[in-house]
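Reviewers of the previous submission asked for a worked example of the structure-prediction workflow described in the proposal, so we include one complete record here. The input consisted solely of the amino acid sequence. No template or homolog information was supplied to the procedure at any stage.
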Amino acid sequence: MNSGFYKDTFMKISEEKRQRILDAAIAEFSEHGFDSANINTIAQRSDVSVGSLYKYFENKENLFLAIVHVGVEKLKAVLEDIIKSDEKLESRIEKIIKAIQVHTRENVHLTKLYNEMTTENRSSLVWKIVSDMENATAGLYASMIKEAKEAGYIRSDINENLFAFYLDNLFIMLQFSYACEYYKERMKIFVGEDVVNRDELVAEQLMKFIKGAFFLK
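From that input alone, the workflow returned the following structure tokens.
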């Protein structure tokens, strides 16, 4: 965690207590957004007093930034391990899709929080954190696409930076479709009520869609 978002006292409590507070804050902010999230509710959910929360965090904004940072770092770690591997582009993309499916289910509230961040007018609040991840993934995606293009493995007429952007948008939409009710319902309308339980089908068809854009016929 970034120490700029919490006070020294936060690291002096037990790991179990710290996790309780973070989990409660993630749930509250993801369900209600920044403005409507209630510090009292977070304190109740984590079984600490409101006064204690303010001993650990300067204000509501810093608590929010702390949990955004947790979510960004979790997903960033998952993606970087796959992207930096020596496997072919096709294999790496397929692994990213499957990792997103697993990560999103295991971290539903974090994904909802990410969605809240993109829809609320708080870009100045979170951009300094989220931009670290966006800049990292943008560069990594573009790099692996360029590498595959130079090796003659994919089409030579594509712009690696734009295709990295398109690819990332597909991944973000996939995350939201598993965690956020609006996007989940949209996916059901297009594919069917049981689509959220058919990960193999979703991964297989998304791979076909991506291959059609990237790979040589």
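The mean pLDDT is 88. We consider this example representative of the routine output the project will generate in years two and three.
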